[in-house]
Specification:
577 residues, alpha/beta, eight-stranded mixed sheet
């Protein structure tokens, strides 16, 4: 067996495929004399694996495939690798995971060489890191930039995928691995007149790559989710005037970022195994484990002392190092929410503004929790104003700004920090057709169904890293990615050893996993709250839309154990031939 997946091509469908493309269309695919049935020399447009997306997941995946000796190519829509860290250039954009828990752990040399400069690394440094990884492992030559995918079509007879780019170019491969990311499809509101505004206006995801000088400018920003909160805290002291249009407030706590000294980094390098072990044990994949004490057995004073310490600790400490009951039971969650509301009131000078910034429709941690730096203090500035869209909704965008139900506003720059079509949005942008011509978008109408968040029945040889219903939407992203990449690698090795050319999730196994995803979500208190946790996006869905099940909420340790068990049992829930 050759040291790649070429053995998969030795069955009769491979011979048919060669006849179809290399005899009928030799001018494009080469002749049989150029490409033997043993496939010793792949043509320029044929790959064993095509990877869609060169973000964090795609980089990890192509590194794995390269190590396996697989002939693969990554197709990236943007002009540079990095995914979210290439596209999101907005002020204040940075990790909310501790930097040293976000980086790849597949190489000890990489861990030893890279120095994280801040506890929560900013976008420019993150992009530099990903390019450093690509340089170190010679990955650039396996990545094709400016290559947005328009269509993926499965050929059952030939057992291949044909991937068509937006420029019309076609590539063929035995497998396609999607690495399209959870937050790569921005969504815009549908206000009247959005094309009429005469100044710069854009979604935060499309913040200009060239420098945008906001000094003295009148800036309007719509949205106070994670991106909006980062932007507001960063630019409030730089702009002439900043008006924030808030649809609904979000709970947020300090990021507590700081520099990492050389001595600290040296210590982190010594403790990497310990750090990643904690991440593997944590439900969220972070360097935080919950307090093991029983909430009701701890005095009010002790609880307060813990919450004070966690509020001033880095990152998601208040969310993840807290008592378990604060996120599973109503009364402890209400106590914690009251505590955080008290801290917000202490930071905002105007009591009326403070109350507008405190959520009333959900408890602390029941929606995606943004981390902030100076966000609440921004509203103490004379040049910053908060406008509640619940009280005075936007009626239209104008040539010079926007009009609410009560007032007209003029701006030089207008920013839409209005979120993303999470998990499934990137798939919906591609016309993906599986067996019998079935479209993935139609199969996923309403809510996705998957097997382990990695495969989809009816779409053979399509594998997903950070796909819907995986743990990637609910945990520290790279920690979840490496688990999936390793599992996919083991599956491809299994196929290689058994000389298999077609892998497809069993329909019953898919139904069982989807039900597990539903059960885990419905067991969570946040399941009744409309947020992207429950697959809701106000920009694309009606207010009464049914919940969608786009992420696995059983925790990273449980998810990893399930993947490991499936692999140890020989992937028996996957139909193979």
């Amino acid at each position: 067996m050759q040291n790649d997946l070429r053995g998969l091509y030795s069955r009769r469908p491979r011979a048919l495929w060669f006849f179809r493309f290399h005899c009928i269309m030799p001018e494009r695919y080469g002749t049989i004399s150029q490409l033997s049935l043993e496939n010793e020399n792949l043509s320029q447009t044929d790959y064993e694996v095509l990877v869609i997306g060169a973000g964090v997941a795609g980089i990890c995946q192509i590194k794995k495939l390269k190590d396996m000796g697989v002939t693969a190519l990554v197709l990236e829509a943007s002009s540079g690798l990095g995914g979210t860290w290439y596209n999101n250039r907005y002020p204040g954009c940075r990790f909310d995971s501790e930097s040293y828990t976000y980086g790849f752990k597949f190489s000890r040399d990489l861990l030893n060489e890279w120095h994280w400069k801040e506890m929560f690394s900013p976008q420019p440094e993150n992009l530099k890191y990903l390019n450093f990884v690509a340089d170190k492992f010679d990955l650039h030559k396996h990545i094709r930039l400016d290559a947005p995918v328009a269509q993926m079509k499965w050929d059952e007879c030939a057992r291949i995928w044909t991937v068509t780019l937006e420029d019309g170019d076609e590539l063929t491969s035995r497998f396609v691995i999607t690495c399209t990311g959870a937050l790569g499809t921005p969504t815009m509101p549908s206000y009247e007149g959005m094309n009429e505004f005469e100044g710069p206006s854009f979604h935060s995801y499309y913040w200009p790559h060239e420098p945008l000088d906001l000094t003295g400018k009148r800036v309007g920003i719509i949205g106070t989710g994670a991106s909006g909160i980062q932007i507001i805290g960063d630019i409030a002291d730089k702009v002439g005037a900043l008006t924030v249009f808030q649809r609904r407030p979000n709970w947020s706590v300090p990021l507590n970022n700081r520099d990492i000294t050389k001595a600290e980094m040296a210590d982190i390098r010594q403790r990497y195994e310990e750090i990643f072990a904690v991440c593997a044990e944590s439900n969220g994949g972070f360097d935080h484990l919950p307090d093991q004490r029983v909430y009701e057995n701890v005095s009010v004073e002790e609880r307060r002392a813990l919450w004070d310490a966690l509020y001033d600790a880095p990152g998601f400490a208040l969310l993840l190092a807290n008592f378990r009951e604060t996120f599973l039971e109503a009364e402890p969650n209400r106590d914690l929410s009251d505590y955080v509301a008290e801290r917000i009131r202490a930071r905002v000078n105007d009591p009326q503004v403070a109350e507008q910034l405190i959520p009333r429709d959900h408890g602390f941690g029941m929606r995606r929790m943004p981390m902030e730096t100076g966000y609440f203090e921004a509203y103490n500035r004379d040049n910053v104003r908060l406008v509640s869209l619940l009280d005075t909704p936007i009626e239209r965008i104008t040539r010079t700004g926007l009009q609410t139900s009560e007032e007209s506003f003029d701006f030089d720059v207008l920013v839409y920090a209005t979120g993303f079509d999470v998990m499934t949005g990137a798939f919906d942008k591609i016309d993906i057709r599986g067996a019998d011509g079935q479209r993935l978008k139609e199969k996923w109408q309403g809510s996705p169904t998957t097997y382990l968040g990695v495969m989809v029945n009816g779409f053979p040889n399509m594998l997903m890293v950070a796909g819907p219903q995986s743990v990637s939407g609910s945990t520290n992203y790279p920690r979840a990615i490496e688990v999936c990449v390793d599992w996919i690698g083991a599956l491809l090795e299994h196929a290689r050893t058994a000389d298999l050319s077609r892998l497809e999730a069993d329909v019953d196994a898919e139904a069982t996993w989807t039900q597990e995803v539903i059960d885990m979500q419905e067991a969570m208190p946040f399941s009744k709250v409309k947020s992207w946790f429950t697959g809701f996006n106000a920009n694309v869905q009606a207010a009464n839309a049914a919940p969608r099940y786009i992420a696995y909420w059983g925790g990273a340790p449980r998810y990893t154990k399930i993947l490991n068990r499936v692999a140890s049992e020989g992937f028996r829930d996957i139909n193979m031939d």
